[in-house]
From TrEMBL:
SMART domains with a match to the protein in the record: JAB_MPN
Organism: Thermococcus profundus
Record keywords: Hydrolase, Metal-binding, Metalloprotease, Protease, Zinc
InterPro entries in UniProt: JAB_dom_prok, JAMM/MPN+_dom, MPN, VirAsm_ModProt
Domain MPN: 3-132
GO MF annotation terms: metalloexopeptidase activity; zinc ion binding
Name used for this protein in its record: Metalloprotease
Source species taxonomy: Archaea, Methanobacteriati, Methanobacteriota, Thermococci, Thermococcales
Example GO biological process: proteolysis
Length: 132
């Protein structure tokens, strides 16, 4: 499996991560073709926890994003957030979230690190990220 995202979109997420004192978060909208996940739009959301070590997206905002995606003929293909002090690897809490949102999880760091992950059969697997 691979995640295909525009370089500008990825750079934009990393830039936001560097400008925020808390973890940033949001959804990746796009489409899935075979084993490739194409990101067409990055939709940032508020971090309800406003925390440097965790994030939570408000269910109402999630519902809004699902509506927006549907209106645009896109799917919510991923979740993104930042890690400020540790590598872009899912935490225990992230893995619980991945169990609820079973799509690709992109994690970035302010210093420009990024890795994507998916939970498959209870196992966290890395997803290759390709920019276009
Ligand atoms: Zn995390």
């Amino acid at each position: 499996m691979r995640l295909v995202i525009r370089r500008d979109d990825l750079v934009g997420i990393i830039k936001s991560a560097g400008e925020s004192e808390g973890e940033i978060c949001g959804f990746l909208l796009g489409r899935i073709e075979g084993s490739a996940v194409f990101v067409e739009e990055v939709r940032g959301t508020r971090n309800k926890l406003n925390s440097p070590i965790a994030f939570e997206i408000d269910p109402l905002e999630t519902a809004e994003v699902l509506d927006e995606a549907e209106g645009k003929g896109l799917e919510v293909v991923g979740v993104f957030h930042s890690h400020l002090e540790c590598p872009p690897v899912p935490s225990g809490k992230d893995i619980e979230g991945m169990d609820l949102w079973r799509n690709v999880w992109l994690i970035v760091t302010p210093s420009g690190g990024f890795q994507a992950w998916i939970l498959e059969n209870g196992e966290v697997k890395e997803v290759r990220v390709e920019t276009r």
